[in-house]
Specification:
Blueprint lengths: L4 H21 L10 H30 L1
Helix pairs in contact: 1-2
Length: about 70
């Protein structure tokens, strides 16, 4: 586990970008073929990852503002 806030911030941004790329590169709007469970799981993980990155961004800027 990364203890520094800057390290957590950088890792969370990298993970969020990775989930964005993964989720949007495998989107099929027809819904045919592969089960929707995997798509929904990655989409939900993407939303949580972006939310976490935003939360850590706010925390990072508030800490450096003071």
């Amino acid at each position: 586990m990364v203890k520094s806030l800057k390290g957590q911030f950088i890792i969370s941004i990298a993970v969020a970008i990775g989930f964005l790329i993964t989720s949007f590169s495998f989107i099929e709007f027809s819904g045919e073929g592969i089960t929707l469970f995997n798509k929904r799981l990655f989409y939900f993980a993407m939303i949580l990852s972006v939310f976490n990155a935003g939360f850590l961004t706010q925390k990072f800027f508030h800490k450096h503002k003071k």
